[in-house]
Specification:
Order of helices and strands: HHH
Radius of gyration: 23 Å
Structural class: mainly alpha
Shape: elongated
Number of domains: 1
Number of strands: 0
Largest sheet: none
Strand content: under 5%
Helix content: 55-70%
Number of helices: 3
Length: 79
């Protein structure tokens, strides 16, 4: 019976392998689940870095009109 999720073979150094094995055992999950979670977290962290860089670029090139505070914005709307 074919697997419903794609499979990936990973080759890693022995110390890294043993570290992931210990973490999986500590977390009470399979090695496969631990690797999936670690890859997912790494991708999320990478995405956060990219969005932070985008925000920094936008902030750096912002010119007039100047930013308006939250209070001033609602005051201008008369709310």
């Amino acid at each position: 019976m074919p697997a419903k999720n794609p499979r990936v073979m990973v080759v890693m150094e022995q110390p890294l392998y043993y570290t992931v094995c210990r973490k999986a055992k500590r977390d009470g999950v399979s090695l496969s689940t631990e690797m999936r979670d670690l890859v997912r977290q790494a991708l999320e962290d990478n995405e956060d870095i990219i969005w932070s860089q985008v925000a920094d670029k936008r902030t750096a090139r912002r010119s007039s009109p100047p930013s308006v505070s939250h209070k001033a914005f609602w005051k201008r709307l008369g709310i």
